[in-house]
Design brief:
about 190 residues; single chain
């Protein structure tokens, strides 16, 4: 399994301690350990965090190959939009622990339906066309996760909030054929 994730001289490396591996190699060992059980679902929580760009690409390729070779699904949890676009088929966008949008990656990246998803994509550091010392951000603060406000959890940071957002929490509603969006902007007024 170590050979399959790109560890050179895998047999002799079995006797090594973790501190004798680089960060990228430790990440590969963790992936190999998880895949030894031949899972039907692999949960990868920020597997490329703290890796340089070259190692990140290698880990993505290893995960993609393992997905095909083992026929397993991968639940990939990340804030890195570029990695999500490369590795995932579907995406679930969450804000303050709540699902605000779901659908095929391509559809959501090209036509986001929720204001948070739009702002999140706008904040991707790879997106600005002109170099700048100031990166785009979403103004405001996250709500207290132990005492979520009534209504829409994103309303205090949303530039498109409607009056009903203050006291009515929107449920995920169909948005096209294979998507859902939890936003009053995408639902008819009569659904309140």
């Amino acid at each position: 399994m170590l050979t399959s994730v790109g560890i050179p001289d895998a047999r002799s490396r079995l006797a090594c301690y973790p501190h004798e591996f680089s960060g990228g190699m430790r990440q590969r060992v963790a992936i190999a350990m998880a895949l030894m059980l031949r899972p039907k679902l692999l949960i990868a929580d920020e597997p490329t965090t703290a890796l340089d760009a070259t190692l990140e690409v290698e880990i993505i390729e290893i995960l993609r190959a393992m997905k095909s070779d083992l026929g397993c699904s991968i639940l990939f949890i990340s804030h890195h939009l570029g990695v999500i676009a490369q590795l995932c088929d579907r995406v679930v966008v969450m804000y303050a622990g709540e699902v605000v949008e779901t659908g095929p990656v391509r559809d959501i990246f090209h036509d986001p339906g929720h204001p948070y998803t739009r702002r999140l994509i706008e904040c991707d550091p790879a997106r600005p066309k002109m170099p700048s010392r100031v990166l785009p951000t979403i103004p405001g603060e996250l709500p207290d996760l132990l005492a979520l406000p009534g209504g829409c959890v994103f309303r205090d940071r949303c530039t498109e909030a409607l009056p009903r957002c203050a006291n009515q929490r929107p449920s995920p509603a169909p948005h096209g054929a294979a998507r859902t969006v939890a936003c009053w902007l995408n639902q008819p007024v009569s659904s309140a």
